[in-house]
């Protein structure tokens, strides 16, 4: 079960991602509505702009609480692009860096030979050969 502090931290992250809450008027239903692309399953409709601005964070808080407690469907989880309510410990560990990579283009014949060589030799042999080439 998610703690209140954890929910509040994730709510702040989500509200920062969303930015200013700007509801629009839906003429067919005659209500003010707000939803955001990062949190498509969280939507609030009310009689006035102020009501929507005031109550949308409450609905978002409940969504984040359910997400942290793993009570939302897999479909809703996949549609949600925002980081609010993310899994603790997810992503790259703090302080670690990506390994630098470089893409090179070579003729197909050379690439096939290189691939064959790499798969037929041990990693240590390949590293030794690369080290000798420098």
Describe it.
It is a single chain. By secondary structure, the protein is α+β, with helices and mostly antiparallel strands. The protein has helices at 4-18, 49-68, 74-79, 108-120, 123-133; strands spanning 24-26, 31-36, 39-46. 49% of the residues lie in helices and 13% in strands. The chain is elongated, with a radius of gyration of 25 Å. Helix 1 packs across helix 2 (49-68). It has a 3-stranded antiparallel β-sheet with strand order 1-2-3, covered by helices on one side. The mean pLDDT is 87. The protein has 5 helices and 3 strands.
The oligomerization state is single chain
Mean pLDDT: 87
Largest beta sheet: strand ordering? 1-2-3
Can you count the beta strands?
3
Sketch the major β-sheet: 3 strands, antiparallel
Globally, the shape reads elongated
**Which structural class do the helices and strands define?**
alpha+beta
Helix content: 40-55%
Spell out the helices and strands N to C: HEEEHHHH
How much of the polypeptide forms β-strand, as a percent range? 5-15%
- Helical segment tally? 5
Global Rg: 25 Å
Distance between the termini: 54 Å
Low-pLDDT segments, ≥5 res: none
């Amino acid at each position: 079960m998610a703690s209140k502090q954890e929910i509040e931290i994730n709510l702040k992250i989500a509200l920062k991602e969303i930015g200013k809450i700007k509801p629009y008027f839906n003429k067919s239903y005659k209500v003010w509505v707000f939803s955001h692309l990062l949190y498509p399953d969280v939507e609030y409709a009310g009689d006035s702009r102020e009501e929507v601005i005031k109550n949308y964070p409450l609905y978002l808080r409940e969504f984040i609480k359910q997400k942290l407690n793993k009570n939302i469907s897999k479909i809703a989880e996949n549609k949600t692009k925002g980081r609010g309510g993310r899994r603790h410990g997810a992503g790259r560990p703090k302080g670690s860096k990506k390994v630098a990579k470089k893409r090179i283009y070579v003729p197909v014949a050379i690439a096939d030979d290189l691939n064959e060589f790499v798969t037929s030799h041990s990693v240590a042999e390949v590293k030794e050969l690369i080290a000798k080439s420098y």
